[in-house]
Give the backbone structure.
Amino acid sequence: MRDLTVGYGQTPVLFDISLAVNRGEIVCLLGRNGVGKTTLLRSIIGLNQPTKGSISFGGQDITKAPTYKRARQGIAYIPQGREIIPYLSVLDNLKMGFAASGKKGNRIPSEIFDFFPMLSDHLSRQGGLLSGGQQQQLAIARGLMCNPQIMLLDEPTEGIQPSIVQEIEDTLKRINEEKGITVMVVEQKIEFARKLAQKFFIMEKGAIVERGSTEQLTNDLLHRYLAV
């Protein structure tokens, strides 16, 4: 992103955002509620259009590309709240990933069940009947179905019990290491972010105010920008 400004109507939300994420990194986007983190992710996938600035992906300018083309280029978005389709089966929710990729297919790759073995036991179950943690795993698996180059996750640990949070952390690390997929996570759980990511960005009032390696994510920074 270079000098990106995004708003809703006449109200700007992001101001001159410039940041780079390198291929294969895991990065975390931190900040209090309402500072623009979700809007930033939505801008990357094309759900919010900028009024200024540009976005490039894999060396190509995608600033004006529609969302479906960004998905087919390899950007997967797992939104806050998961947004699985509750009355579809787990299997059919997974198959939605084929639609995002633009490729036809009916066979779920075996690696999906390697990363998320729980799903193989619930393929015929309605997605809405899964627990919150299971739904989050389904949402990540659905994103993985389109064989992305980067996954954008908006608060993947929200409302999930600690044991499942640990599973999600471990699985995202495996996906990154074994498939080389870049991961960008909006997160509120600081320890999760510290253990998962190599790099962080902190947002305040629609701007990036701090950035660095997670080793540089000091308690002073956390108190200054994240304490309520």
User: Anything to note?
Assistant: The chain has a mean pLDDT of 92. The longest strand covers residues 2-8. Residues 2-225 form a domain with the Rossmann fold fold (CATH 3.40.50.300).
